[in-house]
Amino acid sequence: MTFLLLLPTILASLIMAAHFLRAAGDPRIQGASLLILLDYVLLILALALPLLLLIPARLVRRIMQVYLTLAALDLLWTGYDIVQQRRASGDPDVVAPGVIMACVAAFCLLAATLYQTPRLKARYAR
Predict the structure, then answer these.
(1) pTM score, whole prediction
(2) Is 22 left (phi over 0), alpha (psi -120 to 50) or beta?
(3) What letter would DSSP give residue 114?
(4) Domain around 9
(5) Cβ atoms of residues 111 and 75 within 8 Å
(6) How many domains are contained in the chain?
(7) Alpha helix positions (H), the chain
(8) What is the residue-level pLDDT of the chain in tens, covering all 126 positions?
């Protein structure tokens, strides 16, 4: 049962890793090697953070909640940016990417709130 409560965190981390991998290949930042490096560092961090779930400590619970909340904010900002780019280019489909990014951000927030369940509070109580 505990694994099922942690599964959304693992999935959200994989989604964020894909998000940062896509951002690293964004043609708008080509030539900005520091931004590309940052995206790769965030990619590695997104893949490594779920390994913290193996440590039953209270700090891990808080780290994951903060990480998932920041991930949701990043996804919302990216969704806003995509909508603005499409609006500026005259693309008629400006709503769909914003809705998709908002749903993924909501999934990240759901994963963060699961750490408030009694089972995960007990697992990460030390």
Answers:
(1) 0.90
(2) alpha
(3) G
(4) 2-123
(5) no
(6) 1
(7) 2-24, 33-48, 58-89, 95-113, 118-123
(8) 899 999 999 999 999 999 998 887 776 666 667 777 888 899 999 999 999 999 999 999 999 999 999 999 999 999 999 999 999 999 888 899 999 999 999 999 999 999 999 999 999 988
